[in-house]
Design a protein that fits this description.
alpha/beta; globular; binds uridine-5'-diphosphate-4-deoxy-4-fluoro-alpha-D-galactose
Length: 345
Amino acid sequence: MKKKILVTGGTGYIGSHTSVELIEEGFDVVIIDNLYNSEAGVVDKIQNITGVKPVLEVFDLCDKGKVDTFFNKHTDISAVIHFAAYKAVGESVNKPLDYYRNNLMSLVNLLDAMQHNGIHDFVFSSSCTVYGQPDKLPVTEDAPLQPATSPYGNTKQVGETIIRDTTVSDKNVKAISLRYFNPIGAHPSSLIGEFPKGVPENLVPFITQTAYGLRDELKIFGNDYDTPDGSCIRDYLHVVDLAKAHVVAVKRLIEGRNLKNYEVFNLGTGNGVSVLDAIKSFERVSGIKIKYRIVGRRPGDIEKIWADPSFANKELGWKTLSSLDEAMKTAWDWEKKIREKKKDA
Ligand code: UFG
């Protein structure tokens, strides 16, 4: 019998790639999504890639009644991977209550319903933002957490705490928080990828939109940081590599191979890449020169962070396989594909 995994936010960027990998690994997938930041048609794209269309239930996880109704209907769920959340750092500063309500109420409702329905295995979408600016690089999972610099970041810290406390109070509950570094790129089929709403906040969608001619220029937020070329350093990983980590994490829980009831893993490549190097990578794979301008620092930006992924390498048997250039190439292929489609429409 195939095991069924609930993927919340499964039509979103990382959720859709993870749904593909789960199906390809022989799992059944049921998705809950309120389509706030994604489209229902993504399940058809997942079907085009895998041959299987996941079940999609459209509702908001903040609605406790609907969450309970869902679990009454789907009684055979083995584990939950929870992506559904708001994720725009800048927006969270202006709408903190929306972020706290949405990201935390949904989490509490979900954990509560899982407990009531005897579902114990939980994988959480966390972020390297919980580290702030670490003293030591590359950063390991036991590095002290810093006060969050945005309400969004705080929802990830508080979310992790809620989950850890739940595993302490109920020894049946097993959970893994996955701290993502910077996911980029798209599925090699170019059928799924990221759809930023409005002007992109993140670097790679801004680069690809500039290359396509949708933006006049890319603004580089600061070149006076204490880094080799003065621009900020991040750890960019291919979203398909990231998606695969969720499959190994959920299998680890289902098969009871976890060392502790609550575990945390860094998911990154281990390589620090500057903004200027990321642009060069894009230019190499696309053959297009990016028009950019150096402007002032973006408030809240971390100077430099990259992962020590050795715990995930060893314990999950997971590591990134794609290079930065390969990931950039898929980001560019995806950008071109969605724009072509818009032209045809
Ligand atoms: N950057 C630019 N110009 C842009 C956009 C970004 O120079 O137009 C720079 C940023 O200053 C930063 C780097 O590119 O140095 C990466 O910025 P992103 O916005 O792509 O990513 P962040 O590292 O700021 O944020 C990401 C996720 C968050 C997460 C955070 C954790 O988007 O969800 O990592 O550090 F919380």
